[in-house]
Amino acid sequence: MSIKQLKSIEDLNEFVQQPGKQLLFKHSTACPVSAEAYGEFHAFLKESDTSAAEVLVIEDRPVSNKIAEQFGIKHESPQIFLLEDGKVVWHASHWKITHQSIKEALSQ
Q1: How many beta carbons lie within 10 A of that of residue 105, not counting itself?
Q2: Is the predicted pLDDT of residue 1 greater than 70, yes or no?
Q3: Fewer CB within 10 Å: N-end or C-end of the chain?
Q4: Residues 6+ apart with CB under 8 A from 89
Q5: How many helices (H) and strands (E) does the chain have?
Q6: How far apart are CA 37 and CA 77, in angstroms?
């Protein structure tokens, strides 16, 4: 499964406008907790065909800030969102981001 890297607000808007379920992951390259969640996210994607994208919160701060603003959910890192038709139907952060929690959210 390929993961789209969202580097601009345009990339974000394009991704969010897709129909169906998608996963959006906010990752800090400077945080060990984020590294752990990143591993869980990628392990899940290896066995899923869910559309997915990630934002590097330090490198692409404007995109990260726009996500918090657009969805009205306070910024945290790491953070994951399950979108369905452009709306957040589930989100989690830090140690709550696990292979199992993502799997359960998608099965709801």
Answers
A1: 17
A2: no
A3: C
A4: 82, 83, 105, 108
A5: 4, 5
A6: 10
Q: Which residue has the tokens 């992951």?
A: 25
Sign for the pseudo-dihedral over CA of 85, 92, 33, 30: positive
Q: State the pTM of this model.
A: 0.96
Q: Is the peptide bond before 32 cis (omega within 30 degrees of 0)?
A: no
The 10s digit of each residue's pLDDT in 51-96 is 999 999 999 999 999 999 999 999 999 999 999 999 999 999 999 9
pLDDT of residue 54: 97
Helical residues (DSSP H) of 1-108, grouped into ranges: 9-16, 32-46, 61-71, 99-107
Q: Are 63 and 55 in contact (CB under 8 A)?
A: yes
Closest-CA residue to 56 (of 34, 74, 72, 33)? 34
